[in-house]
Design the sequence.
């Protein structure tokens, strides 16, 4: 099961292998000296090397589904356990996003409206003001501010009734039924409603950031602040300034009190961590109420949850960016909340009430339309955090092969992480992987990691310009995630030539370097533990 995300020092304290060391290890391990030979069979070399890589001790006792195909001619270049039913981790998001693009389209926008039963007169709106959501994953404080400014611009200065948050576009199930309880306070496991705030520019939904810094002297309380500022979440600060560094940050399930314990040395730079928010609709209402107050709009009643009247008058509206653009933080940073929002949005678009069970059924139907055989597919969530999902590397390869023929492919492929490229919204979860190799800037692929389950699936161009797809799904290994093996496979594919020798059949040693020193990053996506 996923390891518990511990509290960590700031990102700057993580040890990252230098690009030159990683490149050297890959080159030394994979591109070993092989004399040129006129009768070299490049495909035979490739298969021998991939066999050697999959024999690495880090995969002992596990199952590895691996498929490599040419996109140019459809030829299967390599396969190993292609039909094995495996836990995909975040490779599940490839299915969810493809289905969402099929159902919703790349130009789909999520609307958030402010409505009322009547128009304001002389600055007073008699009755309630309603905030109506449809699942926008990009509801930042800036969006709430713009909505509030528009309400004020519409002439509203006073609301005599309540601020009513309407999240009825989705059902009221906040979490997939089989997510593990130990994960639920951490930001990779947020609750979902049709009004789920995004805490930051990365659009992390359903969470609040806690900034913690030491006091001036030993014995002083530490200082805490919530970002964005909200009264919906409270902090019980029990931590003091002192040695050794031992800060803990916990939100008990079922409530919105975050308890900070332990100690932080004087002069420490402090750190920020995120925790999920219980019942995010109320969180959205609080952020909007604060924005209204900032723009001089007084709401005399309370912030409550309810439904807007069918004949309500429009006061303000915000439309999100197009889905094609929103896929970037989803896939680059492996955002679980966004994937689950898409499942509910798919269900609503196809006539449902915005729930998971029917939404996942619609995901399968969409994949069938794309051309996949889903008879052996099992889905229990959209993001891949659930351990109930099962699929094969062959199914992922089928999706990668069919996708280029779809009208949404350009947006989908552009949102995939890119090996070795700087930037959270460029390289994403592959930013620090395969640097200094032929895979850098070449491999576009989705990562995925849970305890004893890891995957990498995507596209790469070989040495002769041949377009290849690959899917690597590793399950059942012991120890750290076998990312070095996955990277070595991807680099070997980037070097693949049908005619020129690129290695000999004994090559394939996996680099021993570890990309990150944080042990949590060995068992979860690096983005989930703030390590990339």
Sequence:
């Amino acid at each position: 099961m996923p390891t518990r995300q511990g509290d960590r020092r700031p990102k700057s304290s993580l040890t990252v292998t230098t690009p030159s060391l990683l490149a050297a290890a890959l080159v030394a391990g994979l591109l070993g000296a092989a004399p040129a030979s006129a009768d070299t069979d490049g495909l035979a070399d490739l298969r021998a090397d991939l066999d050697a890589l999959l024999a690495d001790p880090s995969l002992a006792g596990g199952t590895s589904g691996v498929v490599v195909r040419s996109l140019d001619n459809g030829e299967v270049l390599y396969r190993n356990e292609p039909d094995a039913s495996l836990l995909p981790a975040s490779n599940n998001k490839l299915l969810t996003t493809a289905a969402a693009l099929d159902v919703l389209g790349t130009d789909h926008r999520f609307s958030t409206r402010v409505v009322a039963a009547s128009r304001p007169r002389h600055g007073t709106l008699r009755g309630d003001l309603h905030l109506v959501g449809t699942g926008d994953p990009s509801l930042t404080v800036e969006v709430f501010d713009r909505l509030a400014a528009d309400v004020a611009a519409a002439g509203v200065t006073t609301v005599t009734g309540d601020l009513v948050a309407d999240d009825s576009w989705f059902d009221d199930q906040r979490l997939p039924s089989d997510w593990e309880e130990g994960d639920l306070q951490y930001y990779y496991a947020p609750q979902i409603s049709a009004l789920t705030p995004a805490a930051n520019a990365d659009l992390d939904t359903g969470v609040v950031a806690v900034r913690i810094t030491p006091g001036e002297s030993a014995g002083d309380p530490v200082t805490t602040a919530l970002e964005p500022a909200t009264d919906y979440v409270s902090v019980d600060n029990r931590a003091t300034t002192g040695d050794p560094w031992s800060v803990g940050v916990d939100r008990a399930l079922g409530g919105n009190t975050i308890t900070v314990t332990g100690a932080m040395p004087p002069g420490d730079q402090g750190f920020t961590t995120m925790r999920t928010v219980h019942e995010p609709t109320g969180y959205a209402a609080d952020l909007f109420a604060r924005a209204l107050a900032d723009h001089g709009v007084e709401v005399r009643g309370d912030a409550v949850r309810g439904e807007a009247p069918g004949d309500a008058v429009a006061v303000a509206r915000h439309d999100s960016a197009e889905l094609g653009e929103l896929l970037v933080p989803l896939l680059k940073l492996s955002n679980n909340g966004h994937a689950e929002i898409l499942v509910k949005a798919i269900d609503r678009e196809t006539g449902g009430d915005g729930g998971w069970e029917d939404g996942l059924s619609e995901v399968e139907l969409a994949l069938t339309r794309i051309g996949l055989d889903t008879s052996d597919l099992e889905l229990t969530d959209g993001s891949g955090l659930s351990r109930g999902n099962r699929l094969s590397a062959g199914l992922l390869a089928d999706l990668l092969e069919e996708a280029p023929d779809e009208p949404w492919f350009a947006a989908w492929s552009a949102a995939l992480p890119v090996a070795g490229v700087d930037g959270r919204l460029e390289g994403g979860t592959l930013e620090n992987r395969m640097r200094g190799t032929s895979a850098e800037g070449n491999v576009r692929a989705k990562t995925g990691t849970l305890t004893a389950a890891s995957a990498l699936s995507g596209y790469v161009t070989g040495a002769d310009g041949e377009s290849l797809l690959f899917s690597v799904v590793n399950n059942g290994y012991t120890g750290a995630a076998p990312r070095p093996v996955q990277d070595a496979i991807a680099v070997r594919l980037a070097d693949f030539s049908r005619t020129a020798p690129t290695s000999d059949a004994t090559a394939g040693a996996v680099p021993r370097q570890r990309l990150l020193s944080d042990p949590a990053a060995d068992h979860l996506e690096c983005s989930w533990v703030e390590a990339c």
Q: What stands out?
A: Residues 207-276 form one domain. The chain is about 25% helix and 20% strand. The two ends are 22 Å apart (CA to CA). Residues 1-39, 512-517 have pLDDT under 50 and may be disordered.
